Amino acid sequence: MKKILRYLIILVCCAFFLVGALRLTMLSITKDATYTLETVPSKPVVLVPGAGLNYLGEPSAPLKDRLDAAIELYRQGKVQKLLLSGDNTELTYNEPGAMQAYALAQGVPEADLVLDYAGRRTYDSCYRAHHIFGLDEVIIVTQAYHLPRALFLCENSELDTVGVPVEQSRYIRSRYLFWNIREVFATVVAWLDVYILKPLPVLGEMEPIFPSQIRINP
Known about the structure:
The protein is α/β, with parallel strands linked by helices. It contains 6 helices and 5 strands, in the order αβαβαβαβαβα.
């Protein structure tokens, strides 16, 4: 029994070491692609990944923070379009629609809002930005704890990507702690998705944001 317990402890320690090493590696390889709202270089599009809706069907506090950052980039003239990517697997749950309504209320023209209804995960949002919407480069805006993974996934989806960590409003402390812990383990899933699993998200016909970028998917 003691031998089994010892092996279990060794196994757990190895797992924690592996997770930590993967997280630190991801932080290291993405740090040079991280900017502020003021210093980020211009790109054609800012990608806003979904972050949930509240009980009223409106963007959650984290999602509003992402949208506010994207809208500020638009107002600064650093992007031409906003790609709003979220989950719409159920008729009663429409992240892109809620994101669009919020951006419209902030004065962004509807013509400059592009909706991706199949951005169920960050991996899907990045993959579809390139393979469905025909983009080769984007700015991505998200919380600091999520940004390294988002940059990693977009870069490995053939997107030249820079990121901006959003200025966070006040979140419920327990939820904020949960998101940070969850992100560490989501890092492992990201590595698996990119190098081993390579899952295909929901695809379909190309919908190029800029017609001159039409190309044939491999």
